[in-house]
Design a protein that fits this description.
Helix content is 53%, strand content 7%. It has 158 residues and is mostly helical.
Length: 158
């Protein structure tokens, strides 16, 4: 994909694992292109006329990138979760973060809404769980968008 003349130079970001160790460094343009292409948006919108992302927004996008790239949860994998599992997982992390921050302290076990086996439940700090929650909710939105595109394509006469 071609960038507009005069687009800002790419900014390097680092994906951080739960232990705050750098796992992989990647290029912001590469990440932006992945999201722009997947979402059907023009890449120029990422660099022109859009305010810079906050650290929180960057961390959510980095976590989403980590899920698809380092954890190998591809879009095809996500598309198999047709019963709201991605949203439920995001809600579970948000509930756990709320409980941890304002309630019982340490997170013991996963909330009952958690859609998968306990081995996939990985509680962390309040902020990290909120980042995971947002990234999983973003994954659900992306899945829904892809479904709308597939359904529309299926209706187009050949």
């Amino acid at each position: 994909m071609k960038f507009l003349e005069g687009s800002p130079e790419p900014i390097a970001h680092a994906a951080i694992d739960g232990a705050d160790k750098v796992v992989h460094v990647f290029n912001a343009r590469m990440m932006a292109e992945q999201y722009a292409t997947a979402g059907g948006y023009k890449i120029e919108a990422v660099f022109r006329g859009v305010p810079p992302h906050t650290k929180a927004a960057q961390d959510v996008l980095i976590e989403r990138w980590r899920q698809t790239s380092l954890e190998s949860f591809s879009y095809q994998h996500d598309d198999k979760h047709e019963n709201g599992e991605l949203a439920k997982a995001g809600i579970a992390y948000a509930l756990a973060a709320d409980s941890h921050a304002f309630g019982s302290g340490l997170v013991r076990g996963h909330p009952s809404i958690w859609p998968w086996s306990a081995r996939w439940w990985k509680p962390d700090t309040v902020r990290r769980m909120l980042v995971k929650a947002c990234a999983l909710l973003l994954a659900e939105i992306e899945r829904l968008d892809r479904k709308v595109e597939r359904d529309a394509a299926a209706r187009v006469p050949a």
